Amino acid sequence: MKFIRPCPECGTELRFPLDRGILIIKCPTCSYQFIIDPDNPETFNKGRFDFPQKQNSEGYINKTQNLRKDFKFGFKDYFQQFRFDIKQFIVLLLFLFIALHGLKMFGFFEKFNPDRKEFEQNRRKVKEKKIKPVTEPPEYNI
User: Fold this and answer.
1) Cα separation of 99 and 119, whole Å?
2) pTM of the model
3) pLDDT score recorded for residue 98
4) Would you list the domain boundaries of the chain?
5) Contact partners, residue 8, CB within 8 Å, separation at least 6
């Protein structure tokens, strides 16, 4: 069993065993040292006992079943937030198709695509240009 007592200088909670006799305790934050004597009743005035938690008697199978149920319900709850009305979705989809069709009909995308004739002329120019073979540089006599 451990005993919890605050440091007299900084107030940090320190845990130490009582079954080892007289101890010199040093605070890790402020480096203050004090003596603990389990036989002296004044030691227990400013602290409290640290009782260990009861171990869960639930078996392994029950734990895994509970985890599985929690995961299922959490997964379902997460996706229930995103429910939508199918009619609204269809109306929105039709609106988007009509809007894109209108943009196509009024020539909005023609700005971004060059005319076919210009494209073919540029291609012919590139084919006509031939790469000249690299010649050696002329030698200069000084």
Assistant:
1) 28
2) 0.35
3) 93
4) 2-50, 83-129
5) 32, 34
